[in-house]
Structures are given as structure tokens and as C-alpha cells.
Amino acid sequence: MKADPKSLPPLRSDAEAEEFVETADLTQYDLSGFKPMRFEIEPKAASLNMRLPAPLLDAVKAKAKARGIPYTRYVRMLLETDVAHQ
User: Fold this and answer.
1) Which stretches does DSSP call E strand in 1-86?
2) Phi and psi (nearest 5°) for 35?
3) Are residues 80 and 40 in the same domain?
4) Entry's InterPro entries (predicted)?
5) Domain hosting residue 4, numbered range
6) Higher confidence at residue 20 or residue 1?
7) How far apart are CA 24 and CA 5, in angstroms?
8) CA nearest to 75, candidates 61, 85, 86
9) Together in a domain, 16 and 55
10) Angle formed by the axes of helices 71-84 and 54-67, to 10°?
11) Do 85 and 47 share a structural domain?
């Protein structure tokens, strides 16, 4: 029978986090609250300027805020997702 998962300890620095990951058995911890994270590495060399109805922009900003990301990154994510599905 599997024991109840533990909560992660507070990690106050990158060094603490790296040491924890190297030494801990992560199968003992509840990782269900984790969310996928995308890192933006590619430089942005072009820009896009567009006019939108205010309610649409407000809705986009609200969705981005709910995800905890800037709305420009959210718009870029939507565009990348749509282009990738073609």
C-alpha cells in the first residue's frame, strides 16, 4: 500500500532546489498542483501592432491574468498553438 504523498518543502534558492531534486525521491511527493511551464528562449525580432475592440482585449487580459502570464505572451501562445495545429 502506497503512503500518502508529502508536500514539497519550501525551497529558498536555486541551489536548495537543485540539491533537493538531486537527492529526493520525488515519487513520495504530491506533484499534482504543478503546471507545465514554457520558457521563451527564441529572441523576438518582429513586432505586431493591431487594433481590437476593447471588450476583446479585456477578455484576453483576463484570460492571461488567470493563467498568471502577461497578455502579450498569452496572445503569442495562442498564435503559436494555432499555427502548430495546421
Assistant:
1) none
2) -120, 145
3) yes
4) CopG_antitoxin
5) 1-34
6) 20
7) 13
8) 61
9) no
10) 90
11) yes
Task: Read off φ and ψ for residue 23, nearest 5 degrees.
Answer: -110, -20
- Residue 9 · residue 20 · CB < 8 Å: yes
Instruction: State yes or no: pLDDT of 73 exceeds 80.
Output: yes
Half-sphere exposure of 81 (CA within 13 A, CB side): 7
Best CA proximity match to 29, nearest among 50, 2, 49: 2
DSSP for 68-83, written as a single string: TS-HHHHHHHHHHHHH
pLDDT at 1: 47
Burial group, residue 69, by CB count within 10 angstroms (0-12, 13-18, 19+): middle
- In total, how many domains does the chain have? 2
